[in-house]
Structure formats: structure tokens, C-alpha cells
Amino acid sequence: MNFKGLRVGIIFIAALLSFVLFFAGQSLYRRYFVLDPLLREVGAIEGVEGVQVLPAEEGKIFAFQVAGGKDLAKVYGEIDGKLRKRLGKEAYAIILKDYRNKDLEEVYHRVHYAVYEAIARGNFMYLAEKVEEEARTYGIKDYRVTVDSERVYLQFEQDGFYLYEVVSRERKPERGRLEVD
Predict the structure, then answer these.
(1) CB distance 151 to 166 below 8 Å
(2) Which of 67, 82, 102, 131 shows a CA-CA span of 20 to 30 A to 73?
(3) 104: buried, middle or exposed (CB in 10 Å: 19+, 13-18, 0-12)?
(4) How far out from the chain centre does Cα 6 lie?
(5) How deeply is 72 buried, as exposed, middle or buried, from its count of CB atoms within 10 A (0-12, 13-18, 19+)?
(6) What is the distance between the alpha carbons of residues 73 and 151, in angstroms, rounded to a whole number?
(7) Which sequence spans correspond to the domains of the chain?
(8) Over the Cα atoms of the chain, what is R_g?
(9) Is the Cβ–Cβ distance between 57 and 77 less than 8 Å?
(10) Cα(166)–Cα(151) distance, rounded to whole angstroms?
(11) For the whole model, what pTM was predicted?
(12) Where are the beta strands (DSSP E) in 1-99?
């Protein structure tokens, strides 16, 4: 079909092909020059045993398998720092996969109220005492509570099992961060 001497069909096909190539090229670029190098970089952090990218409606969700016996605050801080640097303002969330059992989950359940109270009131000494008390009740000798300006980190280890929890001190998600339960 011609319109004023132009072949509309060929123009339409060329435009469609251009759009397809543009979006395919952009997708390939993000995969091979952004995401894959990022996964290699965060996967090389000491304590990270594996990383997956999970589908999300907006942004990306990174699921990390973190080894037991590591300093959670340090490992998490390195992970978050590398993600922030590479992804900029793109939204993302971090999920930690641990190896928990019922006792560790019960201890966390018993202290999680104290975590949120400490965040609201700033009484982190009470939180440390509560964690120590509950850990002792369940016979957990390896535990740690770490607080920085952004988060509270809890880790419990017992008989080869370990539980890691990171709770944001912000009431709303950080800029560029997705909120995931």
C-alpha cells in the first residue's frame, strides 16, 4: 500500500522491527553487562553461598543463602552496598535464606516485640538483655544482636541450625528498596 509515494507496509515493519530490536538489545545489555556481573560480585562476598534473582512486579528481589557462623551485619552491609552501587535508584529487596529450626523460630518470635520496641524507643540495651535471656532459656550459646544506623541484625545458632533476621529501623522502606515480608 502506498501513501504519497511511501510504502506504508515496509515503514510499519521497519518501525516494528526497530522497537523489537531496541527492547531485546536493552534486555540483553541489562542481563549480560549489569545483572550477571552484579551476581558474580555479590556471590564472591565471604559468607554468601548462593544468590538468586526472583521475579517481582517492580524492581528485583535478591535471595541470598548466607553461611552460618558469619557476621550478619558485615555480610548484609557488603551485599547492600554492592547492590546500591550497581542498581542506583532501581528498587530492590534482599531476602536472607537461613537454616532455622522450631526452637530458633520460637526464640525469634519471643524477642521480635522487643526488637520493634527498641527501634521505636531506642532502648537497645533492653533488647540485648531480652535476647540474652531468651537464648539462655533455649540453651542457645551462639547469638548476636547488632545495631547500626539503618538496621537491627539478629542471629541465633544451635546444633548446626541458624536463623538470621534483619529489621529496618526506618518506618518506611529506604529509597530504592522494596518492602518484602
Answers:
(1) yes
(2) 102
(3) buried
(4) 53
(5) buried
(6) 9
(7) 45-168
(8) 23
(9) no
(10) 7
(11) 0.80
(12) 2-3, 6-7, 48-54, 60-66, 92-97
Burial (CB < 10 A; 0-12, 13-18, 19+), residue 168, is middle
DSSP string, 82-150: HHHHHHTTS-EEEEEE-B--HHHHHHHHHHHHHHHHHHHH--HHHHHHHHHHHHHHTT--EEEEEE-SS
**pLDDT tens across the length of the chain (181 residues):** 666 666 777 777 877 777 767 776 766 666 666 678 888 888 899 999 999 988 788 888 999 999 998 999 999 999 999 999 988 888 899 999 999 999 999 999 999 999 999 999 999 999 999 999 999 999 999 999 999 999 999 999 999 999 999 999 987 655 556 666 5
Q: Which three cell numbers stand for residue 45?
A: 562476598
C-alpha cell at 20: 523489537
Determine the Cα–Cα distance for residues 179 and 72; give it in Å rounded to an integer: 19
End-to-end CA distance of the chain: 56
pLDDT of residue 15: 75
Crossing angle of helices 72-87/36-43, nearest 10°?
A: 160
